[in-house]
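input
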Amino acid sequence: MAKIRIEMNDWLFNAGLVGLVNILKKAGDEALLDVKDYYVEFDTQLLEQFEEKYFNYFIETYKETLPWFKIVSYEKEIIHHIGTDYEHFDENALKTLNEYVQKTLKNNLKKDSFVAAYPLVDDERDVIAMGNQIEMISLKKGEQISDVLTQIKETHEKIQPIIAYCNRDDAKKYLAAKNVIYTIIKIAWNGVCFLNPQTKIKDMYVDYRQYFLEPAQVYFDASKKKYKYNCFNCGDLINDNSNVMSFLNAIGFDVGKKTSHVWAFNNDIALCPLCKLIYSCVPAGMTYVYNRGVYINENQRLSRAIRINENLKNHILESHVMNTTTTYKGMITAFNEQFQINLKYELADVQLIQSELIKKGKNEKILYKFSLFAKHMIEVFYNSRDILKILEKAGYEIGPKKAKIYFSVYEQVIERIFNNQNLFTLIHKLILYKLTDPQNCYYQTYHITSILEMNTEILKGVGAVENIEKEVIKRANSSGYYLREAYKSKGAKDKLNGISYRLLNALKTNNINMFMDTVLNCYLYTQKSVASIFLETFEDEEHFKSIGYAFVTGLIEGKENDKPNGGNN
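output
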């Protein structure tokens, strides 16, 4: 046995390294892994039957998203209805059955990936023909479920052998493997091994072993004294430059066709077999759902990168969907958990990588998006974790009645922080929408004050302010509320919208004189003492805007302006 030591490198290699650890942990080899700050070390024996461990990781991790699982999971429904003698089988259950037969069963059984796997299963039954014998059941006018119950039972009897076929160990092994190849692995790399259209090896497990694993095992034992080239990634000696990076989507290039990409048209970008094996594990390091992927490149400590991405994966896969909201929520949850284990002062700037498979007809393209996540922003999220929970369901709609577009306030807050922006422009927009189009605002004014409080954390993090506190926001908001009540008592609440617009214009242009003139006239009109909070507006621009927007938010507070379920839908 020999020891393998693999060190962290660029983001893509780190994703592969995290993926390798994930695969071995899923296989029960965690105790045999020696994970250090910036590298992992283990015996070569852990790579025995690695191809089985490789596919098993994807199958078990993404099981509930796979077409194979959607077929076999209906068995619980059948067992339930047989056990209750179909007592609770109603029209909704019939609709579910018909959708299962047409969309899940028949469609998937005919897919090319399934058809390619059938010869690998030790069962000669023609499941496609078995599926074609199943017909949808419809209720004619005046018919009840009891009138078609015999057909329903016969349909279930026809479905059960198909599910039994798919539940075979070898059927799961190959059908589910085909699923993960085309829904997960293909997004990270393509064109080689079992994803090579010209491959002659039908068994994807054998193909992976021969293409990735066996060359690495030979490389471990080889004498490298006569090798004259170096691995582009790790710098170790290699025999030739045949192992290129072109199989990695949107990263490598075909050196046979694009030699202009390298110096003097002479390619020196090649990998050692071990690095190539690591890169094949990239899809196990990233988290993928429906053609979209995400990875957090915490490149200071390997153990931390593993934990953060595991937490991110668990959060996203719980919802079975990958969108901006789930990605951000999973990422923030992962970072907050790091704070809870006393790593607050050890976190450094990290990188968020998002990938997406774009399909246009028969053409496919992978796009990567990179965002730098600054350390002080991690602290902002941790200190504002309760506020973020409040904002999760807040949003607004824009556009004509039949073509409205919904915008999530939560997403817009996170995106601005990603871009190292403060939240004043968003706050201005939310107040303005609340004034002009309240019926399409699914948030209340306390959401705006919550964002203002979060904004103070951001301003502190970048050193823009030192002594502004959340209490200042509350006092300014209360001042606006009491002035509003004073206008109501004089029967002049209709004037408040016009006043609010003037105050917003002053805030947008940083015109403190215009703002204070309007405020003083308001207090003069109501014959009230001017709130002392306004003395702090003269300290700096950030104090002025924070106090000003909090004041205007209080000024427009009222049930007539708030949608009853705002922020709760």
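quick obs: The CA atoms of residues 452 and 546 lie 7 Å apart.
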